[in-house]
Amino acid sequence: MTELLHLEVNGEPAACKADASTTLLEALRYELGLTGSKQGCDKGDCGACTVLVDGEPTLACITLALAVDGQRVTTVEGLARGPELHPVQDCFDELGAAQCGFCTPGMLVSAYACLEKNPDATVDELKHALSGNLCRCTGYTKIFEACLKAGARLKAERTAR
User: pTM (2 decimals)?
Assistant: First the structure.
């Protein structure tokens, strides 16, 4: 039986059809056209599908869409600040932290969640925050460098306010 799912997606109200077996990833990609979150392993191992549900990193491929009805979802498309990239996106680009790019959306969302809570996150804290995201290309060094630089930018922005 199909139901109407109501969400706030990237700050905007959204509604789509979902049945009991529809995953959040399927709803986002195929019903709402938000293809930034990647469909990787489909079993919660790779993290390419990571989105935020009410601010918490969530594996969209193993989360049922109807389970998040009425909640706030942020995808990689929603990280930017209007036309301006979020510092984590900008630093990933600047430092070449993305290779093939398949893991990048999940990495960005997980890094964003960590750094928004704690821009002073250490490498160990970042390793923990990104531990659910697998990258097969970069070796992670540039990813952690980009996260540290983004954290420093976020801290500087907050201090300037």
Answer: 0.96
